[in-house]
Amino acid sequence: MSTGLNRILSSALPSGDERVNVHPDVEAWRRHTVRLDRARLVENGIFGFDNLDPRAQSFVFLRWQLLNGFVRSGGRVIAVTSTRPGDGKTFITTNLAAALSRVRPTVLLDLDLRRPAVGWRFGLSAAAGIDDYLSGGADAWDVVQNVEDMNLGIVPVRVPQPQSPELLTVETLPQLLSALRGRSDDPICLIDTPPVLVVDDILLFAQHLDGVLLVVEEGKTRADEVREALRLMEAIPLVGTVLNRSIFSGRRRDFDQSYYYR
């Protein structure tokens, strides 16, 4: 991989809206279907489902980069993290998952067990979550909430878990990731993880990841923080770095504007 970082502006972003069909043997994973409130999604900062929304275009391009690099080379399970809270990692993860689901099956897994936000952003009320599965209280297919008419499965956290390391080191997590890899519809699995400089949860399951995206915020994330985050995650292939809340022409954007791909 190149050591240089190239800035790619959103003015060259592609558009399009392709759908894929669900394979018959995946039906066991689709027991629970949810209908999302589109108005609430936009209110909560999720617009990646709509390729015509100008705010979604950066995620369309990020999707294109992932599919033509990381996924084409065999990557399927990718974690998204940041250095510190507030850098926008969940914003990036949820919108990227929405954009990916327009073109291929996608599973969004919330493993920020201490401070989960994925379920809230999508307006989900989970009867069972990934915390229940990891503790042995639910089956894998019972914690996946599938978005109606979309190829997106969301695995939220039902109850925040202060003692997350105890759940992340059990064998049920690698079993779940292995089962997702074995699905015939070949989904991409995005995992929202805690900031790596705050807690080291991502390191507890690093060996089961194909790569990691690091979210940084322009004007906030320091270079030494990025270096330390990369040092801690040196065992995980770095897919790229997403620059969030970038400034162009003196005006701050409220969405991801640039993508650096390594």
Automatic annotation (TrEMBL):
Could you confirm whether the keyword Repressor appears in this record? no
Taxon lineage = Bacteria, Pseudomonadati, Pseudomonadota, Alphaproteobacteria, Sphingomonadales
- The protein depicted here goes by the name Mrp family chromosome partitioning ATPase
> CDD domains from the xrefs?
BY-kinase
- Which InterPro entries does the protein's record reference? Bact_polysacc_biosynth/exp (IPR050445), P-loop_NTPase (IPR027417), Wzc-like_C (IPR005702)
Alphabetical keyword list: ATP-binding, Nucleotide-binding
Record bears the keyword ATP-binding: yes
Write down the superkingdom of origin. Answer: Bacteria
